[in-house]
Each structure stands twice: as structure tokens, then as C-alpha cells.
Amino acid sequence: MHSSRRQFLTRVSLAAGGALLVPSVLAACGSDTDSSATPSAAPSGVDAKWPELKSRQVVVAGFGGETYDVRQKLEFDPFTKLSGARVTQAAWDYGKFTEMVAKPDPEWDMIDFDGYSIAALIEGKTPPGKLADWVRRCDLVDAAYRDYAAGSYAYSVVLGWSTKLGATPTGWADFFDTKKFPGKRAFPKSIYAGTAEIALLADGVPKDKIYPLDLDRAIAKLNTIKKDIIFYDSYAQGQQYMAQGSASMIATANSRLIQLKDSGKPIDWTYQDAILYPWGGFALTQQAPNADAANALIDYLSTPEAQAAVAKSLYLGPTVSAALDLLEPNVLAKQPSAPENVAKQLSVDVPSLAKQDGEYVEKFFAWVGK
Amino acid sequence: MGRQVTEGGRWLLLPPLALLLIGLIGPLVAVLAAGIAAEGPVGMVTEPFRSELFLGAAVRTLWLSALVAVFTVVIGVVYAVALVAAPRWLAGLLFGVLFLTFWVSLLVRTFGWVLMLQPAGALDVLVGGEGLGLYQTTPGLVPAMVHIMLPYVVLPVYADLRGLDAAQLRAARSLGGGEWLTLRSVVLPAIRPGVVAGAVIVFVLSLGFYVTPAFLGGPGGQVVSIVIGAQFGRLQNLGGAAAMGVLLLVATLGLYLLADRFLGIGRSWSAAVERD
Amino acid sequence: MTDLRRAAPRTSRIAVALGVVVALFLLAPLAVVLPVAFSADSFLVFPPQQWSTRWFTEVLADPAWLEAIGLSARIAAGATVLATVAGTAAAFALRRVRRGRRALRTLMLAPLVVPQLVLALGLYLAVDDLGGRAGLGTLLVGQAVLATPVVYLAVAAGLAGVDPALTRAARSLGHTWPSALLRVELPLVVRSVVGSAVLAFGLCFDESVLAYYLSPPGRETLPTRIWLDAGQSASPAIAAVSSLVIGLAVVLLGVSVLVTTRRKRVR
Asked: Is 90 exceeded by the pLDDT of residue A148?
């Protein structure tokens, strides 16, 4: 599928850390010749520490859509070539994972998880599977969790809006102002990350007083626009709402809005007052059926090269500091965890969130269900 | 009908009974067992009603199904009359459209409805204006469900209309009472079995319907099958799901059995299929 | 039917006019999906601003979609075989049992009204109770159960027109009952059996609820993939797949129309 010449060029440019030829996989122009992201070749020597892999597949629960299509080409396919294990994607589901994490013979090997979700599991005495000793650890992950969280990324829940609105929203308070900014608000139906924080910020709570979260106050604020909300089932559906114009504002991941804007859609977004999730992890189930290959995949995803490739294509920030050195200045500037962006955002308090996780889940889903 | 042929009946029953035992009875018993295991035989019936979510969903599902049944019957009867009264070529076209939609995947049809009903979606684009506000609401489910249920009314009613006695029609006409008399005395009584069968079937099917509410329904205010699905999938609360499932099952099967016994639905279907 | 038209002309005209409106209503969702499939955009927007067939090429070249189609076809085929055998046997059995005929008919039609989600839950639990994990085999059985009433209704209807005297004659000539069934009765209802088997195949191929809950990750049937894609993806690829499905339905409809009109002319 990928020409060996392309692979060679990519290897060279990755090694040099220079300008990667990342064609716009995200652009609308239907260029059939290069409709894939730059295919990554596996960084050389990445499998040096791997044991003999017996498993033939790894089941990853992820978010699907275009982001995961890019991941498939950038990371999963090269991994498969190297290891012989096929990467199968399953539909992300929080409840399903927490149910299966400690049980024998789970359906999934790992899930794309937020840092605080992993912390919550550890807090609740059902930790995810511990990473094998030979798996690279990510240094930007909080020290207490490095044995459980790796291979993942930083992202922000940001405010996105349609440029057809005329005026530019300046913060979350405007998200809740449906008179000044008419139209529907797009909100995730089953991903609760950032929801309470957004509501509290809009209600005027200062950033340093957000944690621990006053969930009831957040829910009350959310109810003020309840009838103007349309829910999206997945990040991709949220993107479709904005592309179609079904919603005039959205709260969603920065990477998804960058994709939309790059493909020429009339939307814009900002890091101002965004909710930053500085690290996450591909959490393993304790008795993952393909544990050896799953660990190898996480190790692969934690290499600086893989982290940098994802950061470049998807603007999902690295959790490995060595990857930051591989990024060009202008790409670095747009990362959620770039210093000037961090200053504008609210970085989540992982231990506090971990403690409140159960309550958060319960109240969020109760609110959605009304 | 003469002496019935009786040999071999028992052997012939083996394949279907085996299949239904393994594939239908077994699973339904498993649901019952799980419900009892989770809540106890009494709790199984009462527990779901304690949940506000389930109660709301149950009420919602009932009136939604009734609404869908009423609309489907009205539109279905009109369509069936059109099929019978239209000139040959047009009737063929109308039939073609009906069967075409029936043959197209349910998911594809529902997906089309999402595109139509979402804010600033196809309907808003074509008709203009701010939209009907039907997306992710319970009333918004009605058009899509009627769309899917229509054949269940059209086919039996059409069969009934085909069986209309030409002599009776002529007689009614010659009495000089006008069209309304003809309709009231000949046509309406003739289509009654089809209408009843169709209405019951649509109502029962709507009670348990899953796909359309999954795509078009709002997360707040969902129907029973979606609530069960959430317990089953996301929340992994299999016992609770089973208990609710039993209630839904009792409702649907119960209605079906009652309708079959007192209204002869099964016979009506067989008749409809025969005429086809 | 001209009798009705003559007896109630005004009503007929109104009904026909309304019928056309309803037909448009029936076509609307399909008409919306088709243009989007030809969009050049990478996001799903109606109406498309630029046109291209790239999504069709992408979908048809994507092994995942082809795999899903193949899997759906295989499971549907297996389920159809089971359903056809069960439904046909039941229809024949109905003629032969003296008591419990009504109960049998009610049982055979029951799968039509059981909520599919409850059946999915039940299959999952039943397999789990037996120590296994629900998978494609479970799905196959479940779909067979759902399709059996269709076959049963069609074959039973066909058998209603078969004179029991024929079977009696065959028996009196020395046939055993299986032989009489296979040689005398079955050939008379072949059309119903085959026709309903085709319908059953279509039903199983398109079956979505059981498939969604029972398909293991990575081995999804076509409807499940469409379902997941509809929720998880923002691209017109799913509109392209949907258009292919609609196209298939049109072709099938055309074929069946041709077959039935041909037969009428021959007679």
C-alpha cells in the first residue's frame, strides 16, 4: 500500500526532525494519489526490548472517525508490519471498560483513557493492568501513574464556533448566552470530560477555585441552556454538526476543530479558557488476552517519533519530552501543552478529579438522561 | 377439507421446535432467570418501576407507540386505497416505492432521517426556516417510525380492499347515498380486519423498537428499549436490563397473544400473505 | 381496481393524490442520502458543494467494508438455511398435527413480535450462562429465529392451495410419508420456499440490532459497520455505502418485477 520510496523519505525526514511531508489528509481536496497521511515507518530499533510476541492482534477501544483513521495509518499499520499483530479498533465505552478491567478474559486489551480516569481506577482499587517493565515510560505523565499510563497524548476541550455567527465569542460565558449567539450548542452525550469545568467557568468561578468541583452548581448552569443543546454520539458526529451548521458552538477536543478548520469549514476556536488534559494513557485491562502485543503497542506509541508524528498530524500533544524536540516551532506553538497555551487554559487537577470521578459520572449521566 | 394428512407431523416439528427452543425460548428463559437472580421473582416486576428513568421511559414508549400506530393506520389506509384506485401504471409505481423502501436497509433509512431532521439539515435546507425542532425529541421519532411501519398496515388493508365485493359496491352506489354511504357501509367494514391487525402489529413493534430511537431520539426522554440497551451495554447492569427486558417482553408478547386470541391476527397475516 | 374508482370517485382521486405525497415522503430520506455520497468534501454536509466519486472508490477499495459485506453474506446464508428448513418443516407440520395447531402457529409467529433488543440480551445471557462468549455463531442462530416466521408464512400460504387428496393418493400408491412429502407436496410449493428464502436472506443481511450487540470487535457485519460509522465518522463514506445499498435494493426490485411480469406474459 505504501511505496518503499515514501517510507525511505519519511525515515530520513523523521530522523532529521525536519519538515515532514504531511499532506493534508484533513483537507477537502480529493487528491486520490495522496489521500493518506505520511506513512510512518517504524523507528529503527524500537522493538529492541520486546519479547517474542505470540499474540496476533491487539484490541484497542478508541474514538474512531478521522483521528483514528490517521492513527491507523501513522502508527497501527507500521506496528502491525513490525510485530505481526493486527490492531483492531472497538467502540469506546467508559462503563464497559470499567466493568471489564479486573475481570478474566476481557473483550478489549486497552482503551484510550484520560489521565484522571486512570487515577480514578487506581483510587477505586481496580487499577488498569500494569505496564510491563520493558515498556517505555512517558516522562510528562505524573510520576505516581507512570506505571499505568503511557503511549497517549495531551488534549484540550476547547470552545469552537461557527464564523457565520458574526461576533466572536470570548469565553464559556458566551457559550451559555443563547441570546447574543443564537443557535444550538453541541455537547457530548457520553464523554463527560470538561463538562462541569466549562459550566463552572461560565458561571464565574475563578480557575484556582474550580477543584473540587461543585457538580450541582455546574448542572444548574447547564440546565439553563438544556433545550438548546444537541448531543453528539462521538467526536466525529460533533464535527459533522459543525460542518453542516446544525450547531453554532461546540465544546470538543482541539484536534477535531483543527481538522475542521484545516479542511476549510467556516469555524474557529480558541485555547482561551480551554480545559487542558496534560496526559492520558492507553489503559490495559488486567488480564488482557493479548498482553504481550498490547504492551508492545504501548511501547511503540511512546517512542518520541510516534509521539511527534501524532502531535504534527493531529495536534494531540506529546507526553514524552523528547518528542517536543522533534517538532518544528510553528507546530509546537499549536500544541495544547505548549507553554503559551498552557497559560491560557485550566489544567485539570488529576488527584481531585480521581476522587470525584464516581460522583461526576453519576451526575453527568443523570443530567443527560433527563 | 377431507381427511387431514397426519403422518410425520411429529418429525416435521423437530427442526422448528429445536431452533426456537435454542434460539428463542432459551434466551428468553435466560433473561427471566437473570432478572430473578438480580431482583428476586417479585422484585423483578417491581424494581424497574422504582426507577424514575424506566417509569418515564415506559410511559413515553406507550404513548409514542400509540401515536405511531394511529398515524400509520391513517396514512396506510390512504396509501392502500390509492394502490387500489390508481390507474395501473401509477399503482405499479406506488407499489414499487413501497417495496423499495422496504428493501432498503433500516439503518440507511434511519440515517437518511438523521440528515433530514438535524438542525440546518436537509429538511431545513429544502423547506427553509429554522427547522421543526424535531431532532433528538420523542415526537420527532414519529415520522421515521411511520415510514418504517407503513408496509405492515398497507399490505393487510390492500388485501382486504382487493377482496371487496364488486356487487356490494354497485349496490351501495345504486342506493344513491353518495360516496360516504359506500365507504361507510362497504369499504370500512371490509378493511376492518386489516386495520386492526396492522394497528396491533405496529403498536407492538413500536413498543420494542430500537434502531430509530437510537439515532433520532434525544438522550433525555428515551424509550424503554434504549434504556435497557444502556443498562446492557454501557452500564453493564445485566440484572437490571433483564428485569426491564422481562417487563417489555411481557407487554409485547402479552398483547400479541391477546390480539391473536381475540382478533385473529395470525390468520389475518396468513391471509395477507396468501393474497400476495 | 376500477370498481372502487367508480363507486367512490372523489375519494379515490383524493386518495391517489395523497398516495403520491406519501410516496414522496417514503422516498425522501433515500433522496437525501444519495447526493451526499457524491460529495467531494471530507465532511458530511448536505447539500454537497463539490462533486466527486472518490468516496465510492474509497469504500470499494477498503478491505474493512468488503470484509463486512462478506461476513454479512456468510452469516445471512447460514441463517437462511436454518430458517428455511425450520419454517418449511413447520408449515408442513401444521397440516399434519391434529391438536395444538393454533399454539404452533402462534409460536411460529412469535419471533416477529419479540423485541429484538430483548432477544439480543437473552442470547448473550444464554451463551454466557453456558460458559461461552456470544459471537457470530450466536448471531447466526438469532437471525435464523427472526427469519423463520417469514418462511413459515409463505410456505403455509402456498400449502393452503395444495389438495390433501394428492398426498393421500401418493400414500395409497405405496409412498412413505417422507417420500410423499418430498416428491408430491414440496415441488408444489417450491416457489414459496425459494421466494421466502430470498426474502429471509435479505432480512438477515440487513439485521442490525442483534448484530450490533453480538458482533465481536473487528468482525462486524455490514449493518453494524454502518451503524458504528454513522455515529463515529463524519465523512461521506457512509453515504456512499448507503447509496450502494439503495442501488442494490433497486436492482432487486427491478429483477423481481421482471420475473413476475415475465411469468404473467408466459401464462
From this structure: yes
C8 within domain boundaries: no
Predicted confidence (pLDDT) at residue C255 exceeds the cutoff of 80: no
Q: Is C200 on the interface with B (CB under 8 A)?
A: no
**How far from the centroid of its chain's Cα atoms is residue B247's Cα?**
18
- Does residue C125 belong to the interface with chain B, where contact is any CB pair within 8 Å? yes
Confidence (pTM): 0.84
What is the DSSP secondary structure assignment for residue A137, as one 8-state letter?
P
CB pairs under 8 A between A and B: 42
Is C43 within a domain?
Answer: no
Tell me, yes or no, if the two domains A54-152+279-333 and A155-276+340-368 fold the same way. yes
State whether residue C217 sits within 8 Å of chain A by CB: yes
Rounded Cα gap, residues A290 and A193, in angstroms: 29
Query: Minimal Cα–Cα distance from B29 to chain A, Å?
Result: 24
Using a CB–CB cutoff of 8 Å, tell me whether C215 touches chain B.
no
Neighbours of chain A (3+ CB pairs under 8 A): B, C
- Do the chains contact at C7 and B179, CB–CB below 8 Å? yes
pLDDT tens-place string over residues B201-230:
899 999 989 989 988 888 777 888 888 888
Domain extents in chain B = 65-275
Is residue B8 a contact partner of residue C96, using CB atoms and an 8 Å limit? yes
Cβ of residue C64 closer than 8 Å to a chain A Cβ: no
Query: Does domain B65-275 fall into CATH 3.90.1200.10?
Result: no
CATH dotted code for A54-152+279-333:
3.40.190.10
- Cell 506553538, residue located: A333
Q: The CATH number of A155-276+340-368 is which of 3.40.190.10, 3.10.20.740, 3.10.20.30, 3.30.930.10?
A: 3.40.190.10
**C14 φ/ψ angles, rounded to the nearest 5 degrees:** -60, -45
Per-residue model confidence (pLDDT) at position A15: 33
Q: Say if residues A169 and A249 touch (Cβ distance below 8 Å).
A: yes
Q: Would you say the C-alpha torsion A184, A186, A192, A195 has a positive or negative sign?
A: negative
The verdict on a CB contact (< 8 Å) between A28 and C218 is: no
